[in-house]
Design brief:
The termini are far apart. Helices cover about 40% and strands about 20% of the residues. By secondary structure, it is an alpha/beta fold. It has one domain: Rossmann fold (3-Layer(aba) Sandwich), CATH 3.40.50.2300. It is globular and about 30 Å long.
């Protein structure tokens, strides 16, 4: 699809965090095809480092990662940039409910191709009118 066919999807900075380098490169290539600027990080700590020095419109993070999982990242990201939308990804559907409270959207990896762009467009295009509530 040419970029001009979806102008609402052709701008913005997305931060992708995934410990699987192959998946990270696929996500980056996919999003760049639609005009996004993509920052990548192989860990939650590197993702927080990037988010502290770059303005990002949407963050995509996988749940299962060593050292800092997606929930731990989301908690720290909310402290750093509370208004930035966070999309959590997982191959498993049994992500703890507590983890989902910290993110704006959850997508299973088997639905990634069909759900990622519409979710980014919804969160970035409309902007969050109210941030999620965070019960610790």
């Amino acid at each position: 699809m040419p970029l001009s066919a979806s102008p609402e999807l052709s701008s913005g900075v997305v931060l992708c965090i995934d410990d699987n380098q192959n998946e990270l490169e696929c996500e980056k290539a996919f999003l760049e095809t639609f005009g996004y600027t993509v920052l990548t990080a192989p860990s939650g700590s590197k993702g927080l480092e990037l988010a502290s020095i770059h303005s990002v419109d949407v963050v995509i993070v996988v749940y299962f990662m060593p050292k800092m999982n997606g929930q731990e990242f989301a908690i720290e990201m909310r402290r750093l940039r509370p208004q930035t939308p966070i999309i959590m990804l997982s191959a498993a559907v049994d992500v703890p409910e507590q983890a989902l409270k910290w993110v704006d959207a959850f997508i299973t990896k088997d639905c990634l191709a069909s759900q990622l762009l519409p979710t980014i467009a919804q969160l970035h295009g409309c902007g969050s009118t109210s941030p999620p509530s965070y019960d610790t």
